[in-house]
Amino acid sequence: MKSTVTKKTKKVRVIPGYHLTMGITVTMLSLIVLIPLASVFVYALKLSPAEIWKLISKPTVLHAFQTSILCSLAAALINCVFGVIIAWVLVKYDFPGKRILDGCIELPFALPTAVAGITLSKLYSETGALGKPLAALGIKVSYTRLGLIIALVFIGIPFVIRAVQPVLEKLDHQYEEAAFMLGATRAQTFRRVILPEMRPAILTGFGLAFARGLGEYGSVIYISGNSAKEQTQVISYVIMQKLGYIDYASATAIALVMLILSFVLLLAVNVVQMRQASRTNIL
């Protein structure tokens, strides 16, 4: 009898082995993300909790936190509504120029935020193409919180669209047809069949747009006016202002709060994504 020799087939990988790629990954993450973030915590540890509270509880800082959070929240909610509508149109309908419009969704990512801020502030100023008719109606946009919201909508809407689009593309049309056959109206079909499938993606887009709005600087710095009296200063501008005054303690304390808020938001986004993934695997 001939002895049979079993040979283990080696998996061919294009990228080198686990240890090398893992080492490169950890090194890059450490140099680009972990070490800079750790430096904020290390410097913040030099301050006592009482000192941190004293620095972040100043009226100008509290007003800046309020402005950033409220405007980012309003912009994220607006993006959820119009982002879903735009994603629906791009997925469900075919029309001339669809690919061009779909490509324009990425424009806020590619366009320098400072350029967007200058363009929006000029466009919505009292002499601008859109600001002049609004000013005639008594609506002032530039150098107000309304201008801040518009700028944050501009830079945040791609997050919602790109989060919802894949869900709509994978959604089976048979669900809609079954709902119609059972006598459901269009509104009932959307509310009970389509919306539950889109909800995790909408929440993900909302969280990402909200987090981006909290830390935005370039697109809001010009259109906000940065007025402490009118309470149009955003928290990122206050950090830059403190650094300009060489007040590193205040800048670090504010940055620590912003870092914690960002971690909480990203954690919430990851929880939503994990629940959606588990739900999909169950189905």
Fold and architecture overview:
It is a single chain. This protein is mainly alpha-helical and 283 residues long. It is built from 12 helices and no strands. Helix 2 crosses helix 12, helix 6 packs across helix 8 and helix 9 runs antiparallel to helix 10. The termini are far apart. The N terminus is likely disordered.
SSE layout and pairing:
Blueprint: H1 18-44, H2 49-56, H3 59-92, H4 98-104, H5 107-110, H6 113-123, H7 131-136, H8 145-170, H9 173-181, H10 186-215, H11 235-244, H12 248-282
Structure in a nutshell:
With 283 residues, this protein is mostly helical. It has twelve helices and no strands.
Portion of residues within helices = over 70%
Q: What pattern of helices and strands is seen along the backbone?
A: HHHHHHHHHHHH
- State the distance separating the first and last CA atoms: 51 Å
Q: What's the overall geometry?
A: globular
Notable characteristics:
283 residues, mainly alpha
